[in-house]
Amino acid sequence: MKRTTFLLAAAFVLCGISGAMAQEASAVVAGTTTPKFCAGNEMRVTAKLNSIRGALAVYYGDTEGYYPETLKALVPKYLPAIPAISLCDEKNAIVHPGSRRVSDVSAVSPTDAGGWGYVSDRNSTSWGTVFVNCAHNAPSGKPWYQQ
Ligand SMILES: [Zn+2]
């Protein structure tokens, strides 16, 4: 009985995640700027950012002090997949359509390619930092890469 309840809960969580992904994908396909889509954009992106940061923290613990050379090394053991993100700006316009791209950089300075930035340089003081690779302001007015 308990096991069944757990499985049902897990199924609902997975449906919720794929539902959000489908929503982002449809916004990208339409190629339009929909304020409705942008309304929850910051919250969804932050949740995905936190999921990657959490995976990095576990990886760091498992390896006793090392971050992966690439974010893709987290998949699938620490993270099911690199999450795709679409980014809106202060005017609720989509400035970067859905992307899973990871740009390897040596400091937390955005190249504005969309997707993620990851400081893979072991000699950097920011080694192991992941950020949203966007110099635009998020709907709240705070730059995406500073989230
Ligand atoms: Zn940008």
How would you portray this structure in words?
The protein is an alpha+beta fold. It has one domain. The protein is built from 3 helices and 5 strands. The protein has helices spanning 2-30, 35-39, 41-62, and strands at residues 85-88, 94-99, 102-105, 116-119, 130-132. The strands form 2 sheets. A 3-stranded mixed β-sheet has the order 3-4-5, with helices on one face. Strand 1 and strand 2 form a beta hairpin. The protein starts with a helix and ends in a 15-residue tail after the last strand. Mean pLDDT is 85; it is low at 1-27.
Jot down its keywords.
single chain; globular; 3-stranded mixed beta sheet; binds zinc ion
Write the layout of secondary structure elements.
Blueprint: H1 2-30, H2 35-39, H3 41-62, E1 85-88, E2 94-99, E3 102-105, E4 116-119, E5 130-132
Parallel strand pairs: 3-4
Antiparallel strand pairs: 1-2, 4-5
The chain binds zinc ion.
Outline of the structure:
The protein is an alpha+beta fold and 147 residues long. It is 38% helix and 14% strand. The model is unreliable at 1-27 (pLDDT under 50).
